[in-house]
């Protein structure tokens, strides 16, 4: 499944962010704790330069805590990067972001000028909710659908901090392909741009490998199905989701799998680990190298 989702307002957002980011004293990027790599925007490192960066792993309560710790260690290897984890409606925890911002900008005199902070994140990671928590008032729109924030705005925070909110935007092409599936599972991509059942099948395959006991317990299975499709068939049988002719209704099963993952009914789960994404990156580089080699070979043949 190749997902290419880059609406016009996101293209505009990218240009605006590129213009104002050099003026920032600090950057906050909100990530989904279940998919820190897939929800990280690869445009940020190229636009950031040496500006200090706080990566907020949001929705911690929905993620596997052991894997979240791995991600924090992995992300903080990058120079000038600190991480913090958050869960829903924990104001004291969220205010820790501002304390961390102060620690990371010790040379900035807030008596003379405001600390300029940009907060960004891809759609549906909870950025607007965090902004409202930090501001102590509803200043940013929130919603369960991606791409609620459409325009950049500056918000005054305590201790002379000026927070620049930005629209959530994805990168032009989602790569490697597995990142697109993970984003779709968590709801960062609108359902209209992907195949619903394909995404649920990807999730089912992953859950069997990563969380077999939780899957068996949740869906009342005595044995673990051999693959994702077999799991979907088993859920259809348990829940009596059948279409005409007794065929398993995979669309209904897909709704169950995706909704129960998103709302945490399946338990705290993460969809990726640092080791996994490093392996995927190596494989992607290998594929790109092979493509380049074939292209060069083709040029040689044409010249001959």
Automatic annotation (TrEMBL):
Gene3D superfamilies: 1.10.1580.10, P-loop containing nucleotide triphosphate hydrolases. Keywords: Cytoplasm, GTP-binding, Nucleotide-binding. One of its GO terms (molecular function) is GTP binding. Residues 14-172 form the CP-type G domain. GO terms for cellular component: cytoplasm. Residues 279-304 are annotated as: Disordered. Belongs to the TRAFAC class YlqF/YawG GTPase family. MTG1 subfamily. This is Ribosome biogenesis GTPase A. The lineage of its organism: Bacteria, Pseudomonadati, Pseudomonadota, Gammaproteobacteria, Pseudomonadales.
């Amino acid at each position: 499944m190749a997902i290419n989702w880059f609406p016009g307002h996101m293209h505009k957002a990218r240009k605006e962010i590129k213009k104002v980011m050099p003026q920032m004293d600090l950057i906050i990027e909100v990530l989904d704790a279940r998919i820190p790599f897939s929800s990280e925007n690869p445009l940020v490192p190229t636009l950031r330069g040496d500006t200090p960066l706080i990566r907020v792993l949001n929705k911690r309560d929905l993620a596997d805590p052991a894997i979240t710790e791995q991600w924090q260690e992995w992300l903080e290897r990058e120079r000038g990067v600190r991480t913090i984890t958050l869960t829903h409606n924990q104001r004291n925890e969220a205010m820790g972001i501002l304390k961390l911002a102060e620690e990371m900008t010790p040379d900035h005199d807030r008596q003379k000028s405001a600390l300029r902070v940009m907060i960004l994140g891809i759609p549906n990671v909870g950025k607007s909710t965090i902004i409202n928590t930090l501001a102590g008032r509803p200043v940013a729109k929130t919603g369960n659908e991606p791409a609620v924030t459409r325009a950049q705005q500056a918000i005054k925070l305590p201790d002379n901090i000026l927070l620049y909110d930005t629209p959530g935007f994805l990168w032009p092409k989602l790569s490697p392909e597995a990142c697109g599936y993970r984003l779709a599972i968590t709801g960062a991509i609108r359902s209209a741009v992907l195949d619903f059942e394909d995404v649920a099948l990807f999730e089912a395959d992953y859950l069997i490998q990563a969380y077999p006991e939780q899957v068996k317990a949740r869906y009342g299975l005595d044995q673990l199905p051999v693959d994702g499709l077999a799991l979907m068939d088993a859920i259809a049988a348990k829940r009596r989701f059948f279409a005409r002719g007794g065929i398993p209704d995979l669309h209904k099963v897909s709704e169950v799998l995706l909704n129960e993952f998103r709302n945490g009914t399946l338990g705290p789960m993460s969809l990726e680990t640092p080791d996994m994404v490093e392996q995927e990156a190596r494989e992607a580089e290998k594929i790109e190298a092979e493509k380049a080699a074939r292209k060069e070979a083709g040029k040689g043949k044409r010249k001959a």
